[in-house]
User: Fold these one by one.
Assistant:
Number 1:
Amino acid sequence: MLNNKGRPTQPTVDSNVDDSLETFTGNKGLELETPLIFEQGVPGRIGVDMADPKPVKSRLGGLERKESVGLPDLSEPQVLRHFVRLSRQNYAIDAGFYPLGSCTMKHNPRINEKVARLAGLGDLHPMQPTSTVQGALELIDDLAHWLKTITGMPAVTMSPAAGAHGELCGVMAIRAAHEANGEVRTRILVPESAHGTNPATAALCGYKVEAVPARADGRMDLDAFAEKLGPDVAGVMLTNPNTCGLFETDVKRIADLVHEIGGYFYCDGANLNAILGRVRPGDLGVDAMHINLHKTFSTPHGGGGPGAGPVVFSEGLAAFAPVPYVIQGENGFELVEQVEGDAAQSFGRMKGFHGQMGMFIRALAYMQSHGADGLRQIAEDAVLNANYIRVSLDDKLHSSFAGICMHEALFDDSTLKGTGVTTLDLAKAMIDEGFHPMTMYFPLVVHGAMLIEPTESESRQTLDQFIGAMRYLLDKATAGETDYFLSAPHFSPRRRLDETGAARNPVLRWIPDESADANEKTSVSAAS
């Protein structure tokens, strides 16, 4: 099989490549094997010289450490090479196309990184006096203004650390508003296709979650929603565009219905990238919505942080927003940090400090480099790219819902029926083609779901290559080459793992083999 440049894309049966060949080192060209960092340690081998600390009287009351902390002794080259080798085995947006549906993995422009490292911004400390960080507070205030303008909402809190944290913030504000009115409401309505964090957030806040089914067209069933409404409903949590990649055409009616019973409309903002500059959520009747800066505004996705999930509020919820927040006072910009005065109805504090400053800088740089017209084009190009993929694969994969999609194309696995190949098998084969697999088996309302979001930052050439790879693999699956998929991936540093076993019986701690000869371990580590 040749790609469009005439280069062989994978070995064929009569290939001269012998997969059984081995090397002395275990390395295969630039695919370098690296043992665990603990296995490389040699006592006394350190990368820095540090003077012995002066003796001090212990104040630990007999709780002093009796044994070594267990970290390996390593030279600087060992440490550097180990983590560089590991990084080569990771897939990243800087390496290739990352088509995760419902996650918006877009390019992170390097201008953002340059600005975030400017002196006076990159070296801020959260406990500096406000008089010394006026520029930083003004930057936060500018970003807040952009977010309010983009969403058509009058208030925003910047401190939530991620999307799920933003959801928690919004629902806590809803609960605080009802409590201020002397109301006890017990239920929150959530569509069946919602992100899993939506019902989890509502439950965490003490609400009973009631699922609302979808219609045949993939949108929330308005009649079923109306039937579930009542005076005990605190609100609805809805994603728009929804997790099926479709715009909820009844969104204004949904907002009106929930407002009629005194409830609030929480909108999950994970998919804001699809409507950026085209639709203002405030005009749709939204009362609270988190904004994933790492999705819509290109700040890096953090592995547990540095996330940022500001939440915008309607007038009805603004008074209950958490502290701190920035205001412009007589002496410049100030932080309101206490639940008193104008903030007397705030439900309190969610985070130790104001938010993730590095993400604020990157997001504002992204907004200002695009401008209003550029932000609008982001949504237009994201939707165009998704529909290009949908149409290009529609004869090979079955679209879950008819018609034009928004920012992501959703397919089911009906094409694979009877082939012995599953969605998971197809995804594993995508790894061999050099792509991170799409989102699989989500949303749960679609059997064997494949959710593909190209974002606006991918070129047509990249999309064509992805589409070509998908068509090639689907042809192999329907032609009966089942064994190829069951053994994929073939070319990754590690082959298919027992994912179920790993999840149920994880090995989270390295335990040295005490029976091994110490000299033998030293020589093996040195050779590695």
Number 2:
Amino acid sequence: MKQRILAILVLAQCGAAMAAGYSGLGVASISKETLEQFRPKALDPALSGKIQRYLDLRSPGSGALSPDGKSLFFTWRVTGVNQIWRIDGPQGFPVQMTGGTDTAALDAITPDGKWLVISRDRNGEENPGLYLQPASGGELNVIQHKNGIRTLFEFLSDDGRYVYYRSNDEQPDRYTLYRYELAGARTERLFSEPGSWEVMDHRPDGKLLLANALSNSNNEIFEYDPAGKTLTPLFGQGEGVDYTALYGPAGELIVRTDKFGEFHRLYRWTAGVFTPITPDIKWNVSAFTLDTPRQKLYYEVNEGGYTRSYALDARTGKPLGLPAFKEADSVTVGSGTRDGRYRVLMVSRTTAPPTSFVFDWKTGKTVQWVLPSSPEIATGGFARATLESYPARDGARIPMFVRRPARCSPAPCPVLVYFHGGPESQSRPGFSAYAQMFVDAGFIFVEPNVRGSAGYGKTWLHSDDGAKRLDVVTDIEDAARHIRANWGANGKAPRVGVLGGSYGGYSTMLAMTMFAGAYDAGVSNVGMANLVTFLQNTAPYRRANRMAEYGDLQKNREALVKLSPVTYTDRLKAPLMIIQGASDPRVPVGEAVQMYEAARSRGVRSELILFADEGHGTQKRDNRVLEIGHTLRFFETWLKER
């Protein structure tokens, strides 16, 4: 008992010391001298040119059709960052709508087709502003864009008079709901209550379906009447359950939830009663939507990472036939015209960039609108992602997607294990120029979906909540154990590297410290080094949400310290590179700096790269080249025989 108390005290002291290491987030929290010291160095021109060619393998977003179905607006990274483009007919010549170095995203098109509603961010800060632009092109007219403030589009009224949006301009940790009148350029405050509120849907009479998100998988559903300013709880209050809801064709609600089983399913909710719509299968209904007339219900099923899309008559539940696409890893449903006639479908295959098609319900024809780019590289030979698994130490089977080079010389191939972000996310198969870069460089590229990942039921998803993460985080080490024991050749085990971004970056640092010796080199991108300082310094609007996943700063502090990579820096011995955007609002730049300093104090071969003009991951093309290039260089140096 005394030993346990002593251990707790030591961990608490360690956590207190780490918490004092830095404070704040964003580019203002770090000195210009530090940014300059760790600015990425230029790459070898041959390597840079090779990466540039891969980045030219790009595909437009699925896009949104104009109300008359004659034009398609979509995002594309042709200029280096996502901008909005327009084509006036299938496979027409694209016209660029927005420009500059800041990303832009299309939120909506007014019912008369005259205006676009656009979101724009600066330097990856994730504090976007909201703008209007003529659909014919021209200057952007600001609705709201304030420094350090998030302005997030909610919906456009059916008559096109109002843009509804939410913003944390009153309190940094909660959102206020506003509506903006286009004709008069006037803003009206509609709703402001403590919580993380968003609009899920709206009715013609003005009533709003609101969700208060307590975490990424726990929300409460309410109906709000702006006229009477009344908020009515519907379901989810105090349940700790995941819900998504839309108004149905007869005033009922269509609800996606896993309340009644292991997997998400669609239900019709009427007067407190849930009636199933979709079949009881061992896969999640991962997304759904209704067309504007509320006649057709579209939904997507996540079959172990492969997305299948379906359509139903919204009133009767009768299946409606969507077109089939051969050898597709996923088919997702995009936006549609307001009359419900046309629908955008996005198709992803391993051997070609994702492609958007427009399906016409009236004629039954499917037309490819946008042609993806694949200059100088034949994508038909890209490695297919095969679904495999490895055993965890407690017997659980951990699914993983594996891409292998056609040959390895000398054998065995070095292996890279890529952990996804989230953690409530999922690695998927399909086209990936990023993964193929490593495959073509001679690496086996592995993407596990460890416990805590989405897509495998709520038990799997919640198995790492809070302190329970200590029981399953060993999935990280078990991946390397399996690879070393089973993927050798010529009497040798392969060298194994680890990488990932966000939670994947955290997993990488944990792999290199808590599980030192499991991996031979690691590259962590925008990862958390210390869960205590991370939660203390992340953006206020995210803190409560992330504590629901990782643990409370007070109640679960011991577990947070035990789960922090910096707690185990005394074990660190293999080479580690850390990459971070200074403007990151999610993972403060101080996380990267403190981990780098800890590694250097241990004499470990380590590198730190800071992007002064990026946030949670690189968006700008030149920075993307540097990030990938240095990652490739690092693994070439430490995982290949010399």
Number 3:
Amino acid sequence: MNSICTTDPYCAELEQIIQQQKLNALFQPIAALNHEQAYGFEGLIRGPSAHFLHSPINLFQTAERCNQLVELDVACRKVIIKAFVERNLPGKLFLNICPTSLIQPSFRPGATLAYLKEVGLDPHRVVIELTETQSTGDYNLLTEALKHYREMGFKIALDDLGEGFSSLRLWSELKPDFVKIDKYFIQGIGSDPQKRQFVRSIQHIALHTGTCVIAEGIETAAELEVIQRIGINLAQGYLIGHPNVQPIAKIKLPTLQTQTPITIDQRSSHAGALLKQIPCASPADSNEAIWRRLSAQTDLIAIPVVENDKPIGLIKRSDLLELFSRPFSRELFGARSCATQMDRNPLIVEQATSLTELARLITSCERGDLNDGFILTEQGRYLGMGTGRDLIRAMTALQISAARHANPLTGLPGNAPIQETIAQLLAEQLNFTVVYVDLDHFKPYNDVYGYARGDELLQYCGHLLQRNTEPQLDFVGHVGGDDFILLLRSPDWQSRCEAILSEFQQHLSAFFSPTHLAENGYQAHNRQGQLQHHPLVSMSLGAAQIIARDYNTHHEVANTACAAKHMAKRQQGNTLFIEQRVTHQANSNHQAMYLNQDIA
């Protein structure tokens, strides 16, 4: 044991806690999003209740000051392993270990394995999760220590990627099986393009290095939806489950049903819809064997090379043809492993990746992925391939479908896709806010300025609504005329509505003459044919938060939105009206409580 610091008043108590193992284990589930069950559990530790050292932060900071970090680390491992076995938890155990404790002279790599054998837990079910609480100095020593763990069957995870001192270098040096993205990059990801790009990049690197990504800190359905769309299938956070002494292995999430096996009919907007079952090759197969197969199957453009269920490369027909067309190349290279000729960096995507995301990945690549095709995986495991031709067809079909039902003036989705989107949100039990957007006094404007100017104002409104909504989460539709619909899942939906009204007020002057602006209106005929003064055009937003379980059809949602719009139009100027409904039971009569907010 290391010499113990005596200046810290908690050192003696800590030593007693370690020796007597007065520690408590909690477990937080890690969800496999395409299955309604836990993939594994992260073991967490707490000190004695109602004690300064109950907090893990205080516990480990004190251990570091008292030179007892290795001893505490070992004690925590034993407590967590024992509790995991006693509670008969399924899946993998993610076991936190400080990297610095692995490179201490007192570190014994076989101690954990010995204890696992004692309690009867297979090391293949254990993931060593490195928590970088301080700078890691000696990468060679750490790599050597982890090598012993790997040889014994353990997997390695890197925690809090994006935070800490050198996590990207650790990823490169240690080649972990899992990386956990720090919760900072997950929270609010739906409304932050930079966070989405960071997570996309991490997922892209992970697929090419055979690493599984775990998104930490998932707290809202909106965050979970973005993560799934990017193609990440492992998630952890309060939405999945809180740390608990006896966690539940069965996980129920509102969006899990969107992660069932994908078919072209069910989820044609995801990469899995393009899946083709292409038998893979092994690194043990020779170039000659691959060529014979390509010669027999003339429709094959490429064959993926897979090792331990994970794709490691792609053999392209064109590359092998070029090689064998050279004099004596077939004799020289035919018997060699096909791995010598494969593309080691093919495009690899998870089947849950959206088609738009896939198209973005392909068009951003400088290589010929559109011609060569791409490899499809599920949690890193090889499924099959997709082709650029099929992607173009699918994207074209989506665009044709969208154009068929789009408003010809603004190009926004019309009534049919609005209704379909509402119905889909209700079916998937996803809560959202519906906002009915209406221009006040628009008919007099058309009469005074003409329909061409009126169309310009409507097109401006369409662009305004799109600019202030999040395309990853929100939906903008054009009912017709001067009526628009927003279906918002962004957490900050109210501030977005306020921004819409503010920007509309600032730019409205461009659509009126100076005289009419000075008079704050103009003379125009009313519906009875009589001249009267009409105010300038204003915008009314009627908003209602929709709890999916309380609605059966899109018609009910439309009625709620219309009622909110009528209340908004009772006020003068640019107005946001928020209807807050109190529901006692599903499909019961609603008791309305109204809040009016004038933004003018």
Number 4:
Amino acid sequence: MEKESGTKASDASLVVVMAQLDPLVGDISGNTARAVEAVREARIEHRADIVVLPELFLTGYPPEDLLLRDALQGRIETALDELASRVVRDVMVVIGYPIVRHGKRYNAAGVLYNGQWQQEYFKQALPNYQVFDEQRYFSKGTAPCIFTFRGVRLALLICEDLWDDAPIESLIGQDIDIILSPNGSPFHLDKFDERTSIMARRARQANASIVYVNQIGGQDELVFDGASFVMNREGECTTRSPAWEVGLMPALFERDAAHRLQPQAGEHYPWPDDNESLYCALVSGVRDYVNKSGFKGVVLGLSGGIDSALSLAIAVDALGPDRVHAVMMPYHYTAEISREDAALQARTLGVGYDVMPIAPMVEAFTSTLAESFDGLAQDTTEENLQSRCRGVLLMAISNKKGLMVLTTGNKSEMAVGYATLYGDMVGGYNGLKDVYKSRVYQLSRWRNAQGDGEVIPDRVITRPPSAELAPDQKDSDSLPDYDVLDAILHCYIEQDESLSTIVARGYDADDVARVIQLVDRTEYKRRQAPPGVRVTRRGFGRDRRYPIVNGWKPGE
């Protein structure tokens, strides 16, 4: 159904404001208040005619099984009534929310103007891949939403609708001026280019401008980059919001000589490069997980190695040095260079820092276990005791001081099980969970080049990596070089390639078989690992779900 809304002396121009905001999942009343304030500010600061907020903004995205709560519908209806009564007049608002209509639950976007809900659109394309599980919760919409506001022909499409063919095809030939699109599109590497390429094609296909509004901030393992933009009919980006920043971005539309409404050139922030994007994603994910969970700050073990060093820098950039505490827990195999570099980094970043030797704890455990272990040779059991003693100390500090333990293992290690259950895996969140080791080195160098000094000591970056759980131990003693390991892991985890396919790429068959076997047999460890920021197309967690117990032969 089409409906005319609003009156204006001239329809020659229109200001659309993209409200790039960070909702809190489940905080419906708080998100409602955020929406009211954003619309008020957009009207005052930018003389907005239309304000577009992200997908499912009232619940935050993704709300997951909160959608199944009996109380949800009532809270949403209360929020919609509050928006109608509180939002400033003379501005049209497009906002996302879940709603039950005629016994079915929909992912909806509503159009509010002068206290009245004018339109309601139901998302037609429900993604059910990678991290998305919308078909578990929602019914599909079946009709487009086209309406006129102040002489402008508008249509609504929600996120995946623009990635799917059918919804856009229903708008072809409808003389649409602007497609307004609320989004909840999570970040992964290369996502900026992927989005803009697809949206440019859709704009040309529909012969309409697209206002693409994305949310921002972290939600559990997902992180949203914002990076909202306006695309004209020719598929050219005319206005681009900054990535990784909350804010309101206005876009001016005016009639051209042919009386077609066209977006004018506005602010145009460049996409950050891969390392900057990735680092910002990690900072955003850690910041929001800690803050939205209500922790005072974080504590982490600082070993003098590169993973904990990068994790410390991320934590400080996310929370500030006053909310970060580092603990060096040396044992007999901890090198003096590790002690020196950990202390140097802690001083450089200005964080709280303690040194807690674990030898007395390890010796106490060893003595207690001596009778049970009599006659058995030493092996990784004794190495793991060191890591588990460290985990106990960190959890005690967490409990006593209200600090969340930030674990520091990278994706390469988590993939092959190079981590200790109830030891270095102990914690509440992991900033590097989806970051391969080779990328850890790149990010560390990138962070040191940002103009505020060497926050990660150069020796930490250049020395051979080691868990320091045995004399002269190096990671390369038990794993291929990280450049090779990461390439094999990328093929196997993110591309789902078989052993033979990976070997055909030129990798050593024994290396590939060993890596695949390690990945397959350590699924049980990853199930018990803390959540962490997802930054690749296929992280461990929501993306990749494999049975722990199975008869599949490695490499098939």
